[in-house]
Input
Amino acid sequence: MQQVNLGMIGGGTVGGGVFQAWRRNGSLLTSRLGVRINLLKIAVKAFDEPRKVEIPEALMTTDWRAVVEDPRVQLVAELAGGTTVAREMILTALRLGKPVVTANKALLSAHGEELFEAAKRHQTNLYYEASVAGGIPIIKALREGFVGNRITHLYGIVNGTCNYILSRMKAEGADFAEVLRDAQVQGYAEAEPSLDVDGFDSMHKIGILASLAHGFWIQPGSIHVEGIRRISRLDIQFAAQLGYTIKLLGIVKKTGPRIQVSVYPALIPDTHVLANVGGVFNAIFVRGDVVGDTLFYGRGAGQDATASAVLSDIADAALDLKFGTRHRIPPFVSHNPRGRVLPMARAVCRYYIRLDVVDRPGVLARIAAILGRARIGISSVIQPEGHEGRSVPLILMIHDAPNAVMTGALSRIAKLSAIKAAPVLLRVETFS
Ligand code: HSE
Output
């Protein structure tokens, strides 16, 4: 039976998970593929690092070049993370004509264009299923399953930490800071949570999906990003009264010739399937012009979910090596060189606005006049009973309007003497 020699870089959580899954299901893979995956070497940071999964010392080296440049190694899995040395590792392997499997979303987000170009130049492949949404095979679905579709809409809950925090805030009526602290204690959030809660991890992932779906490389700087720090329990409660749930969404929408690519917390109808994706789970809703609406759901992170995606890429790469073919759909095909991202200022959507206003006659009329002059339509107004005092919350639901027009009007509203705190603006996504 044919054999493919695999070299791995990284013996931490992801590398250890892949090693464990390979040991458990390696023979299953062999019988399914007709190729034996022979794990030849694993480069680790240090032999004596604490690791949850024991790796035999005979397999380990601390020199990544000894893995990548070993002439026996035919396939490299980069599972080390980071964006500097990892880039060099991958480029070195690709220059040697060796296919690479990676889980490194931050690296792909920053240097994807260069890495895919290098793979093409050296007539090999870069596989990246594990970089987005862990165990959910969304890259394969977009790359192969939906090859006959134009993707018109893609909405993703792609950060488990944020989804966990928002789900608990809603269930417990708790504040962001309180839930974040507890999530850190329980290991659901990092001690330095910015990558997750400020939306950057979602930005990496949604940029990768948007690039694949629309055939041009989307630079992270062109993605509008907002995180969840400013979400208050009050807004979660008012949204719930109105029949909505707040989720951090990655949004990729084709609007004419341009593509909206953004990450922000949005109110979504409770009746929509994404509103019911709770806890650390991820989900991606994809609409294709032929297939219609589809949904992918699963664990987006963690040792086993990521290992499942890495093994799938290793299997694909092994089959490509076995048949010596590059005729399968390559992992990233640039097919839309004139593709452009829509500036957020021009993106059109509905809004939820919460104002803190002095409760006196004429205030609502002044707010409505500013919105009317900007040609912004109000779809409903709520001033809940039971908040009497110096100021009261006033919630406005707003019809479709361009972002620049809405934020301009809101900054004029914020200057009214009756407005007592900075207005809250959240977007509403109706999936239409
Ligand atoms: N920190 C990410 C999340 C997982 O919470 O989903 C890795 O991308």
About this structure: The first strand starts at residue 2 and ends at 9.
